[in-house]
Amino acid sequence: MPRLLSFAVLLATWWIGSLFVGDAKLPPPPTVLAVMIEEARSGDLFFHLGATLARVTLAFTLAMTLGAAIGYLMGRVRLADRLGDPWLILLLNLPALVVIVLAYIWAGLTEVAAIAAIAINKLPTAVVTLREGARALDAALDEMATVFALPRWKKFRHVILPQLSPYIAAAARSGLSLVWKIVLVAELLGRPNGVGFEIGVAFQLFDIPLLLAYSLSFAVVVLLIETLLVQPFEARLSRWRPRAA
Amino acid sequence: MRLEVDIASKTFKNAAGEQHDVIAGVAFALDAGEVGVFVGPSGCGKSTMLRILTGLDPDFQGRVSRPAGARIGFVFQEPRLLPWRSVEENVRLAAPLADEAKLSALFEILELNAHRNHFPGELSLGLARRVALARAFAVEPAFLILDEPLASLDVALAARMRDQIAMLMDNRSMITLLVTHDVDDAVRLGDRLFLLSPRPARVLAELPICTPRGERGDAEIAAIKSDVMRRINGDLPERESS
After folding, report:
1. Is residue B169 within 8 Å of residue B176, measured between CB atoms?
2. How far is B157 from chain A (nearest CA, A)?
């Protein structure tokens, strides 16, 4: 209920704002909604949203898997940490735009270049978070697993993974929002479809209703994924924790 | 089956690079069915010794021969349960071969039946310790280690748990090693007492108790206790003056 209320407030503010600024700069909600429906009816909206979602899924999965593995290794093995650290700092501070432009120059304006560029942008934050998680692993539980001779995979699944899961959730949460932002830039610069591409078109035509229609549809998709996928997953992971009073 | 231990010395280096002796000579042997009890002041190196015996710490001078592949049951001082697994899952994970009948017998003796599906975070220290006991006994260990299993519990609860431990030990034949600073627990549970010096630890005396655990009368327990107290208190000033 409070969620709906805050959504209504947002909508009202927008509508009132458009009255003040004028239709040309900020079209009112009904105009944008009409464009949205039109784009949905022609199928364009779903096509572009689908293309963007596919890129997000691929890049996110790639970056999380690689990042978790590298981060775990760096947290557990001192040599790996020493070797990897300069690379990590470099990647962390490299602007997203540089990575995307270089990827397109070196690999061409291809799907592989786009997904790789998005993944590389997200990778270092996943590494840093998971490295912290691996460093914080409880040595006492490790000893317990050794003494009771738990097989390797059982130890990983029941002793190590649950300790890492808050870090994995944090990396996924921050990583997802980063990927949402970067994917549009990558599409704008070098892809013939996707929400980013459509926004680029709308920008060139100064078609503000189209621009808002795509931005808002995108925001709705992000919100849906957050509430239907990410939050239930987080709740499930922390179900053993005593409830906060 | 027999456990033979001869730890000549164990030293730690602290962050500043200084060496600290933790163990200065602990040698003993235990046979299956025997309960060896180590009594010593806190911080004397008992926990370090246990880590060496279980193979967790291979960095020491000396020799430990323990039956190859022997299953170990360890009751840690802090229970070391997995907070994200229920009581029953904690026990089953360590002892995948334990069947339902065996588990319910264990839970029955340790009064854990009502808590099977609770998470460790919902348990008191006494209950968590009993879960740790259940886990250690469920693996049917050849070598059982109890590290201060009754410390920081109130007297009544400690006494009840001591009886439960005695009951569980009675129908099993394994090498048992109990570490405690409580002489009463030591005399009531042990077959052989080893008195340890303050850090660096060495064995001051070895006292066998010949009467079986169940048949020890109050008078006998009191006599052994006063003997132990006399040795502990008598040996300390002598060491300090030398």
Report:
1. yes
2. 25
